[in-house]
Specification:
- Chain A: It comes from Nelumbo nucifera.
- Chain A: This is Transcription and mRNA export factor ENY2.
- Chain A: Pfam families: EnY2.
- Chain A: GO terms for molecular function: chromatin binding; transcription coactivator activity.
- The structure holds 2 protein chains of 2 kinds.
- Chain A is mostly helical.
- Chain A is 67% helix and 0% strand.
- In chain A, helix 3 runs antiparallel to helix 4.
- The mean pLDDT of chain A is 89.
- By secondary structure, chain B is mainly alpha-helical.
- Among the domains of chain B are: 52 residues; 31 residues, Double Stranded RNA Binding Domain.
- Chain B is 54% helix and 3% strand.
- In chain B, a hairpin with a 6-residue loop joins strand 1 and strand 2.
- The longest helix of chain B has 38 residues.
- About 13% of the residues of chain B have low confidence.
- At the A-B interface, helix 1, helix 2, helix 3, helix 4 and helix 5 of A face helix 1 of B.
Chain lengths: 111, 178
């Protein structure tokens, strides 16, 4: 086994360029640290299940799986199958509720 | 800062939408991952079987509606949903409580007709109402003698629907045993 003597030089550890974290990043961190992100996700999941959205997506996946053969599907395939329809078919009320909660959080986080 | 509220509001809206989209995508990935798992592990029993079952159920429907299949009197090969076959005529044997003979269950009703009917000797007598019955239902066979079974069966069957003759059958007090 020929030792690799022609190793390229170790790349310089890029110190985070000290740039200001974006507002988005700050909010994201606050969301996560306060636990609100998890709560929001659970709320959204619950609403989407209640309204049948989840079942629709699963049906799409099953139909795709049946066509492609169950051992040939990848997670990527399924994500691509349901993303467009999934994004489009969220009920307005659900979306409004979640947006409202997020906005409330933003206000309360004094951002 | 100019119109901080407006700026804030639109920035907030944008941010909210951004985060909402992020949450939604995350949930989409979850659903996809779960469906992928179900598909790969074969946990979805109906996946490919659905077409198969549709076909089988259509087939079963045809079989059921086909009159030549089940219900034939002589066909002992009809199988019920538990996989049992039953002979068309029930063949358990027991003792008739009227005459004491050994009777096959499937032949019990006709037997009773004859067994109890024969005992209704009053039927064959010319009493006032039974005469009316006989005149009405007699099919030309002599009344004083035992009518052939088929005729008497007719009489008894029809007579059973009316209350008169039934009462009279025991008025005589004699029930002739066969």
């Amino acid at each position: 086994m020929r030792p690799s003597i022609n190793r390229p030089p170790t790349p310089e550890a890029e110190e985070d360029q000290e740039k200001e974290p974006t507002l988005q990043e700050i909010i994201n961190i606050k969301l996560i640290e306060s636990g609100e992100k998890e709560r929001l996700k659970e709320l959204l999941r619950e609403r989407l299940t209640e309204c049948g959205w989840r079942d629709e997506m699963k049906a799409l996946c099953r139909a795709f799986t049946r066509k492609k053969g169950r051992n040939n599907v990848t997670v990527d395939d399924l994500v691509h199958v349901i993303t467009p329809k999934g994004r489009a078919s969220v009920p307005d009320s659900v979306k409004a509720e979640l947006l409202q909660r997020i906005r409330t959080f933003l206000v309360s986080a004094a951002l | 800062m100019s119109a901080p509220n407006d700026d804030n509001a639109s920035a907030h809206s944008q941010l909210s939408s951004h985060f909402f989209a992020g949450l939604l995508d995350s949930i989409i990935v979850d659903v996809a991952s779960e469906c992928h798992r179900i598909a790969r592990l074969g946990l979805d029993r109906n996946l490919e079987e659905e077409e198969e079952e549709l076909r089988l159920s259509a087939q079963a429907r045809v079989t059921v509606s086909d009159p030549s299949n089940s219900g034939e009197a002589n066909n002992k090969h009809v199988v019920d949903i538990f996989g049992q076959t039953h002979p068309a005529i029930a063949n358990e044997i027991f003792e008739c409580m009227n005459c004491g003979q050994s009777i096959m269950a499937g032949r019990f009703a006709p037997h009773l007709e004859k067994c109890m009917g024969k005992g209704r000797k009053a039927r064959l007598k010319s009493t006032r109402s039974s005469k009316a019955v006989q005149n009405r239902y007699s099919q030309g066979s002599p009344i004083s003698t035992y009518s052939p079974y088929s005729n008497s069966n007719n009489m008894y069957r029809i007579a059973n629907g009316t209350s008169g003759p039934t009462g009279e059958e025991y008025a005589d007090g004699t029930l002739e045993e066969k």
